[in-house]
Design brief:
The protein has ten helices and ten strands. The strands form two sheets. An eight-stranded mixed beta sheet has the order 3-2-1-4-8-6-9-7, with helices on both faces. A two-stranded antiparallel sheet has the order 5-10. It is globular, with a radius of gyration of 19 Å. The N and C termini lie far apart (38 Å). Strand 1, helix 1 and strand 2 form a beta-alpha-beta unit. By secondary structure, the protein is of the alpha/beta class. It has two domains: 101 residues, 3-Layer(aba) Sandwich (Rossmann fold), CATH 3.40.50; 195 residues, no CATH class.
């Protein structure tokens, strides 16, 4: 049985990780598959061939589906390539799943997204469904998921109604900053300082990315993210060719275990963010508190041992 929910697959120049994620998508058999690829970098001697090998993998689609491709001839960079690809995706669909070439999902991730996309389709309080749980497990109330102000983008899903608020240029940031509206979202002074510096750099173009703008859009619209009680995504991109990841096997993101969602889903009876989970995530994983790398690794090692929210 094929997956009715559309899937956007974002690829670039990593055939090895792309193949593994593609194989997971193939098992799900989405009826509509969108594939977007940035072009090779002009200053790279290997990109052209690697991009070619990576795109060739899409020829392996062997199930009945509508296949749409957006392959760039020139390199646009992470900021423009990904944001324009997601724009393109939501021009064609009302809702869907988004996977990058290094985000390997458990098969239950697809059914989890499909069900919650339908469940919260018309609830504008929810803007994102996440597959990643950086705490590995969080079962404080026995529900299948919880609500959060934060939203990892390693394997996620959303709706056109939510993405319409996205602005890659963050044109509202100067006003939000001037009126000091952003501290109300932050849990403490350190997060406030972190977001001020971060959004300044994103707005000025010093950071070539697309995802912080998505977090900003959710913040100014009071949008919540759904986080699964068990982690459903393994990031397999921590190698030297990762765009925004690094070659570090000790990095906790490189060793997060992937679990399996149990069905039927146990939905919360209320819609309130889990403040304790958000605080744990902020303190332990957002890396906003300056620390030496060995101290960070100690924290990360401790987090990997967390098995519940008790």
């Amino acid at each position: 049985m094929s997956l009715k929910t559309p899937v956007l697959f974002l690829i670039f120049n990593r055939p090895t990780t792309t193949q593994r994620v593609f194989n997971a998508i193939r098992l799900a058999k989405p009826a509509r598959l969108f594939v977007a690829a940035d072009g090779p970098r002009s200053d790279s001697s290997t990109d052209a061939e690697l991009c070619k090998q990576t795109r060739k993998i899409i020829d392996e689609v062997d199930w009945p589906c509508e296949l749409l491709m957006l392959f760039q001839e020139k390199n646009l960079g992470c900021r423009k390539a990904v944001s324009s690809a997601i724009n393109w995706f939501f021009e064609h669909v009302e809702e869907g799943i988004i996977l990058e070439d290094d985000c390997l999902p458990d098969q239950s991730f697809f059914s989890y997204c499909r069900e919650l996309l339908e469940y919260y389709r018309h609830d504008t309080r929810i803007m994102q469904i996440c597959g990643l749980n950086v705490l590995t497990e969080w079962r404080r109330f026995g529900h299948s998921y919880f609500f959060s102000n934060y939203g990892p983008i390693w394997g996620w899903a959303s709706w056109r109604r939510a993405w319409q608020h996205y602005d890659v240029d963050m044109k509202l940031w100067p006003e939000i900053k001037r009126e000091k509206l952003y501290p109300a979202f932050c849990q403490n002074g350190k997060e406030t300082e972190y977001r001020l510096n971060l959004y300044d750099e994103v707005y000025s173009g010093k950071i070539d990315t697309w995802d912080y703008q998505w977090g900003f859009a959710k913040m100014i619209h009071h949008g919540l993210s759904v986080i699964p009680s068990v982690n459903l995504i393994s990031n397999i991109g921590f190698a030297k060719d990762g765009t925004h990841t690094v070659a570090d096997k000790n990095n906790p993101y490189a060793t997060l275990e992937k679990g399996n969602m149990i069905f039927p889903l146990n939905h919360p009876e209320y819609m309130m963010r889990d403040c304790l989970a958000d605080q744990r995530y902020l303190n332990e994983f957002m890396s906003i508190i300056p620390a030496e790398s060995h101290l960070k690794r100690r924290l990360f090692k401790r987090i990997r041992g967390l098995k519940s929210g008790k």
